[in-house]
């Protein structure tokens, strides 16, 4: 073998080694360099007010670009620059190409409003069963009365669904793996919720493995939300490029979570906070997150069919206005629930 060939082979082996390292968990240095380039991230968990759940948002018959455009305009108007948005595998099964086209359309609209997106794949919250087609009407005064899990009970009743989920996951992530309009892939919302417990661990493990196979340019994460679920939480923290978490507690408790997560040495993004009646508000939590340089993603932008202005455990079956909104910032016509809150948000975002 010639000297030139030996040099080329050594260089190639070195490149393959680097690529292999890059394909796994991001180094802390890479994660922090990525985060330093983003500025302070702030925004909401977003679903248009005309959709009761992820299916109604993404199915072709109810994909409402006019409302998405208008409501992301409300967010831009108060200086928000990031939205966390839930996907669902059912619209992909129904029409994979159409679903991905709708994702791209949504991203075009968000980008027009200078907003990046965190997409969520799987979810263990609320209804454990679902079906394609028209979704039921909201139950008056009931928080998230039509939100659906993904994949829910189906994964336990039909383990072969895992093959479909893998194809869905890899197809969507591969299609947008280098899309700068996407900030981060949130692989699994609140794994173990709705009494799933550790039964959610196998899918969580697969989601990270599938994500590493695709190796997108965006980081992977799954937010910790219940420290009592030790095995799930440990796996999430050990495998996330960027640490995401949920906290609906007052500032003192929220600070304790921050202090617990800081030693991990990775960027922090709070992907759910702000429940007014639980003392998690814009005036006391958002300044804390800005001071700590933590991404601040509150639950809810515009009050609508999800009914998240009603509290989790305080239903109002007559559908009357709650004395204090639990989540959400705007009414559908763009007027704020609280002008004072919007002033606080604008003061923090510089809008």
In terms of topology, how is this protein built?
Blueprint lengths: L2 H21 L4 H9 L5 E4 L8 H5 L6 H13 L4 E5 L2 H6 L1 H17 L3 E8 L30 H4 L3 H15 L6 E8 L11 H14 L5 E2 L8 H10 L3 E4 L4 H11 L6 E5 L13 H6 L3 E5 L39 H11 L2
Parallel strand pairs: 1-2, 1-8, 2-3, 3-4, 4-5, 6-7, 7-8
Helix pairs in contact: 4-6, 8-9, 9-10
How would you explain this protein's 3D organization?
- By secondary structure, the chain is of the alpha/beta class.
- It has one domain: Alpha-Beta Barrel (TIM Barrel).
- The protein contains 13 helices and eight strands.
- An eight-stranded parallel β-sheet has the order 5-4-3-2-1-8-7-6.
- Helix 9 packs parallel to helix 10.
- The longest helix is centred in the N-terminal third of the chain and has 21 residues.
- The radius of gyration is 21 Å and the shape is globular.
- InterPro entries: GH, Glyco_hydro_5.
- Keywords: Glycosidase, Hydrolase.
- GO terms for molecular function: hydrolase activity, hydrolyzing O-glycosyl compounds.
- This is Glycoside hydrolase family 5 domain-containing protein.
